[in-house]
Design goal:
Two copies of one chain form a homodimer. In chain A, strand 13, helix 9 (about 305-310) and strand 14 (about 320) form a beta-alpha-beta unit. The first copy, chain A, is built from twelve helices and 15 strands. Chain A has two domains: about 5-170, VC0802-like; about 185-395, Rossmann fold. The mean pLDDT of chain A is about 95. Chain A is an alpha/beta fold. In chain A, the strands form two sheets. In chain A, strands 1, 2, 3, 4, 5, 6, 7, 8 and 9 form a nine-stranded mixed beta sheet that branches. In chain A, strands 14-13-10-11-12-15 form a six-stranded mixed beta sheet, with helices on both faces. At the A-B interface, helix 5, helix 9 and strand 14 of A face helix 5, helix 9 and strand 14 of B.
Chain lengths: ~400, ~400
């Protein structure tokens, strides 16, 4: 018997409430992603095991593994744990050892216990006896019990023949396993919002295909590089699926727009064309939707009216806008968690065309009639000239 | 001079970074909503005043007012405050009095101070002298200073001739003032998600028009009542704008769907028709968009593929899905904050038609061809027979 960590408890949330068939498929995906992630991060492990409602990773590097696994979509939380046989004596010994290794002096503590299966002891037995053993064995630490808001905790989870004992729980990223949904086209720029939008849809199980637009000559350098770096960060969340990025030249149609339409509508026509370009990629990639980072009211082109004016440029693919009802502070917060905050650059610095007084209440009919002067055939050439980068090879 | 609260400091977030013209309009809306909210909640006040970056409410009921105002869209936080002239002597006296009224014994504290305008003292002077005066005057409380993580705080904000002194900050709901964006059609059911979706888009400044579908005879009673109650809760967040709710009979076209199309596609055709019905209301109401509570992967009809299959039922209005990338736990959390959690009922209990094995990967072409057997002309009658309720009269 050892009280060293030997296991990671992996908890998943919504997967657990799916039908048997769906749950089985999703947990299967999750297990494959966990194995791939541990290999990629070079964390040794002997086995990834599923039981009802949980996945267990058997590894002598449980702390490292818990950190890696907690960043896989579908994982709600992880705990590095000691595993012993499900006898009260072994649980008590291991529990006291874990407390000895982790508890700090003069703080409050509690014992938590859950039990599944048939045993000759109850959860309450564990709580009482381990609580008392810890108090006695570690009397030098001057601990006190607080069941409501303890500063430190020993948790015991007994499942049939095994008992898992742990002191910490690492928050996971949540969501659903990658590949449980279809491909989506994630438009991504050098800005703050679009990577967060992509992340939220990826988190729900979709496989991203990134699309970035190269505004040259209507911008200064670097912007595409920043977009690629943002996509690279996001692609790190995907295991076992190829992740591609299309960089589409968008300069020719922008030039055509500014030469042939009223300046205050430039951003609207630009966005309509970006949606059309993204749609072409959706057709090529057999994707289900197009994802954008738009937030109502964030910019002139993102008023509720202008979202209407932009959206009907395409009809046969839905435009998913996961941030549409979020505040900027929420998006910033998530960007920091994801790891894209440091890259973000004002979108306006990546395009020299936004007018000083943009239209905030465009009329659908006027937009349609002005658009007749734009040469939409340019878009086909632009897609044909796209540069495609493989961010993850899927193996 | 009085050290009683006499003022509420109202802070807004994103409004502050808008252009001069937009900001002026938005703060104007905010002030009107604050006045209307205080009147409605019968909180007496003498004036709502705007200054650069802040709104101030002058009231002898500052604590009540802070609570009401913090639930108005656009408000990031509020603080009930004492207001004195901006002399160091008055600030010190008022600060000590406030500490005497609010500080608890044997806890840590800090003084925070900000200053705008010309004064013969600095922020640092306030921090040092008020810190020292509090320590001396309240020596019986045995306080100690902790500048990093104080348990209690006196904050001083000096703006030109006024100084505001406060001990607490109430979190606001955030977002943008109602009416800064256009009308949106918020589809709403008796379920958990749709009211949260509506809330998020309302929070961004949109005025909601609620649409609920009456599935009779394909459901058991009560469901529409629950939807109405949920809409009533949401409507309480709207001031100065009329809020309507349409309850549209959806039974006739559902009957037509089940009689003429494959059972596993029922939910898809139902959703396509709900979008068409919502679109009719959008035309009537001159709205900018249709809002739904869909979350990728939450139900069979909400796979990424099925969202695609559903969405192209309408093309000329965008479908906004603010929850599309959220996890169920996030939605539950927000529903509790909003006040709709207690109403929510499983959507399935409000419709008897969902098939046991629904299609999760419908083919767009097959859906289109099956839909040719549906009589879409029924929808016009249904909209014509809608019951319209006025939830808020806009005055």
């Amino acid at each position: 018997m050892s009280t060293q960590y030997s296991t990671v408890i992996v908890r998943f949330g919504e997967i657990g409430i799916k039908s048997h068939q769906t749950r089985k498929r999703m947990v299967g995906l999750l297990v494959r992603h966990i194995e791939a992630a541990l290999r990629e991060h070079r964390v040794p492990f002997s086995k990834v095991r599923r039981e009802f409602g949980r996945v267990f990773v058997e590894t002598s590097h449980a702390k490292d593994a818990a950190g890696v696994v907690s960043r896989i979509f579908g994982v709600v939380s992880t705990s590095p744990a000691a595993r012993v046989a499900s006898s009260l004596a072994e649980i008590l010994t291991a529990g006291v050892e874990l407390a000895r290794g982790h508890f700090e002096p003069r703080k409050t503590y509690a014992i938590r216990a859950r039990r599944f299966g048939e045993h000759d002891f109850s959860s309450q037995d564990i709580r009482e006896q381990l609580g008392s053993d810890v108090m006695t064995s570690l009397s030098n630490l001057e601990l006190s019990v607080d069941l409501d808001e303890p500063e430190q905790t020993i948790s015991v989870e007994v499942r049939e023949g095994n008992a898992y004992i742990f002191v910490e729980t690492v928050n996971g990223v949540g969501g659903m396993p990658t590949g449980s949904q279809g491909k989506v086209i994630c438009t991504i720029s050098s800005g703050l919002d679009s990577p967060v939008a992509a992340y939220k849809v990826m988190k729900r199980g979709c496989v991203p295909v990134f699309v970035n637009f190269d505004n040259l000559p209507h911008m200064e350098g670097e912007c595409n590089d920043i977009a690629v770096r943002q996509a690279e960060v996001l692609a790190q969340y995907i295991y076992n699926y190829e992740v591609k990025m299309y960089i589409i030249p968008h300069g020719p149609d922008l030039t055509n727009i500014i030469e042939n339409t009223p300046g205050k509508m430039t951003c609207l026509f630009c966005k309509r064309n970006m949606l059309r370009l993204a749609r072409e990629v959706a057709v090529i990639e057999d994707a289900d939707a197009i994802v954008t980072g738009e937030i109502i009211g964030e910019q002139a082109s993102q008023t509720s009216r202008n979202l209407r004016v932009i959206s009907d440029a395409i009809c046969d693919y839905p435009i998913l806008r996961p941030l549409v009802g979020d505040d900027k502070v929420d998006v910033e917060h998530l960007a920091r968690q994801i790891g894209t905050y440091r890259f973000a650059r004002e979108a306006t610095s990546c395009c020299s065309l936004p007018p000083r007084y943009p239209s905030v209440q465009a009329e659908p009919d006027r937009v349609k009639s002005a658009e007749e002067n734009i040469d939409l055939s340019l878009l086909q050439d632009e897609v044909a000239n796209a540069r495609v980068i493989i961010l993850r090879d899927g193996n």
